[in-house]
Amino acid sequence: MRTHNLGYPRIGSNRALKKASEAYWAGKATAEELLLTGKTIRYDNWKIQQDAGIDLIPVNDFSFYDQVLDMSFMLGAIPRRYHPLMEKERLPDIDLLFAMARGYQKEGYDITAMEMTKWFDTNYHYIVPEFTAHQRFSLLSHKALNEFLEAKHKKINAKPVLLGPISYLLLGKEKEAGFHRLELIENLLPVYLELIQTLDNAGAHYIQLDEPCLALNLDEATRSIYLDTYKQIRARFPHLHIILANYFECYGENLATALQLPVQTLHLDLVRCPAQLGDILEAYHKDSKLHLSLGLVDGRNIWKNNFDQSLALIDTAIAKVGEEKLWIAPSCSLLHSPCDLDLETNEAVLQPEVRQWMAFARQKLAEVVTLKKLASAETDDATRAAWESNRAAVAGKLSSALIHNPLVKQRVQAITDRDARRANTFAIRKEKQQQALHLPLFPTTTIGSFPQTKEVRAWRAQFKKGDLSAAQYEALLQEETERSIRWQEETGIDVLVHGEFERNDMVEYFGEQLSGFAFTQNGWVQSYGSRCVKPPVIYGDVSRTVPMTVKWSAFAQSLTGKPVKGMLTGPVTILQWSFVRNDQPRSATCNQIALAIRDEVADLEAAGLKVIQIDEPAIREGLPLRRENWDDYLKWAVNAFRISAGGVKDETQIHTHMCYSEFNDIIEHIADMDADVITIECSRSQMELLDAFAAFRYPNDIGPGVYDIHSPRVPTQAEMVDLLEKAQAVIPAGQLWVNPDCGLKTRHWEETKMALVEMVNAAKAMRLLVNAAQPS
């Protein structure tokens, strides 16, 4: 029996990668300094895993931005618009990589970034590969080889990790009509084989190929491509030990295919789908040479492993396949876990009782190794002590008085269908809202947050340290809020926002004011690029004891005669972007959060806010990977949103926001949310997402994002008018709003102001175009 790991957090325990990347982008650090930071993080990660006792340690799991983007770069899948930067400007690899991820707007170039979307049902974002018909690939970069050699030089027992060829194609997007991206496998596979050959030549004995798309519903043709592709890999490399890794779900109807693939080790995510072990063992032939990798330690949550439950699964597997054919691992890459629980030393931030139930990436490595020792009878005093400590923590969590609140449970049980319905239909509500708000055609707004400057962040830090009094801190925030309101008025934005300068994070801010939540100092995980989030921990029953946002929203509204949006995060997003308790159904926790948000919505309305936004960017992200599980999830997720919004008058306009999601297959459920206005990401996809809304004849109002806030480039008015004309071609003008793709917290004021001025002018131009087209 051996241990291995599928991937490790790449940000560094103190977010060194974030700081180094942003310093480089700002021109405050050299490329050499950035590359050195990456090298240091890689070595530290390998040493941590080696010292923990992990037998096979992943390499090429590090990235300066995103592992899928790295794969595109290695395979030479560089969209044509970046070729002048390669061929004429000869940008260094690191700069070309960042240009693809963030766009490039200097030296006479104005090149848009590649599209970004969610990595399966996680809050991690990947850069979507772009494919054209008959596309050619080439081995452009030796990143995987270089990092393997780097690890080998450090005497690390390294296992290169590559995104598998079929999942790579499936995760991309065709940029031309008339072909399917899987047709490119004939052009792609030779380059994959060349890449694997370089690793083989360098002495790699094990290679992990990640094929997470095997967790999806695939047709027979795709399964045939899997079989043919892996037969060709095996024929070329009969001596290599290929580890096929699937995670986040069962293999489902793909199991028979997975078991036929000529690989040496098959990885199973037994956290997300423990039942699949029985299915695989039933199909496992006693003479099979296939090894099974049991993903027992949760790579996506922060709770300690229940050793007794895991050992029961290991014992079941040993009885069928034998100890020598089993590997022990986390369920997936630890990319989705914070780095190290040992950094949580402030008991005022994280209660010791809650902390003892937790394990971060470094602690999860120890759990993997301890499980191996316990299962293979390599027990010593330290291992037995770890087992007893684990049992005590699991038992203590089950009986803790911190977790359960009978009043909260009773209120959830009392929810009725009436609680999830507005009083009247959208058509009636829209007329009343127009009478109350007097909005023009193509009304303009933003998604909520404005740039959090270094000054704003410094005030928050000084306030937390006690260097600023509450009165001083509040006065500074009031000044910043008023500046943002006055600027929005001058710019001509129609529905204003207060800017959210008092907020640290759109989920953490609410969690800090709700019961049942815990927090960390250093529990950071990567969301995309240099963007890191510190998810709250939901450990118990959730309730709201005091208003959370009313004070700042009401203050902003008192400054202007224009409508100001109250800004809230929705129940599904708070759930999805937190580390969630695992002792009750997620739907039950979501309903608890929904009731807390409902109370806040009622208080905002009572304070005079006529527009309230309940953001749900994660509702698509939470969709189960297998379609047979969709209906149950969508029923409770949509209902939770409706509960949060269901208590207001017709005149109160409810907005929601969703970003980087495909809506085609759930558009009926999006409509069932019954938000008066939905704002969505559309700019990177050039309004393609609106096709789903048009085909469905979506009845409510829509704000398709007209510029990409995840890139520093400033779009032109003409560019945004072009997008709005595309939108108007499929959605009636009377239903369209004008807004950015997402919140502006991470941007700088200079670029934000320029972009929003262009956006307002684009809306004005559209009004003129529509009015001119009206019959006289």
Explain this structure.
By secondary structure, the chain is α/β, with parallel strands linked by helices. It has two domains: 398 residues, Alpha-Beta Barrel (TIM Barrel), CATH 3.20.20.210; 347 residues, Alpha-Beta Barrel (TIM Barrel), CATH 3.20.20.210. Helix content is 43%, strand content 12%. The longest helix is centred in the last third of the chain and has 25 residues. It is globular. 49% of the residues are buried.
Radius of gyration: 26 Å
Distance between the termini: 81 Å
Given helix and strand content, the structural type is alpha/beta
Total domain units: 2
CATH class of the largest domain: Alpha Beta
Largest sheet: spatial strand order: 1-12-11-10-9-8-6-2
Uncertain regions spanning at least 5 consecutive residues: none
Biggest sheet statistics: 8 strands, parallel
**Total beta strand runs:** 22
Percent of residues in beta strands = 5-15%
Number of helices: 28
CATH topology of the largest domain: TIM Barrel
> Roughly how much helix do the residues carry, as a percent range?
40-55%
Second rung of CATH, namely the architecture of the largest domain:
Alpha-Beta Barrel
Mean pLDDT: 94
Oligomeric state, counting identical vs distinct chains: single chain
Overall shape: it is globular
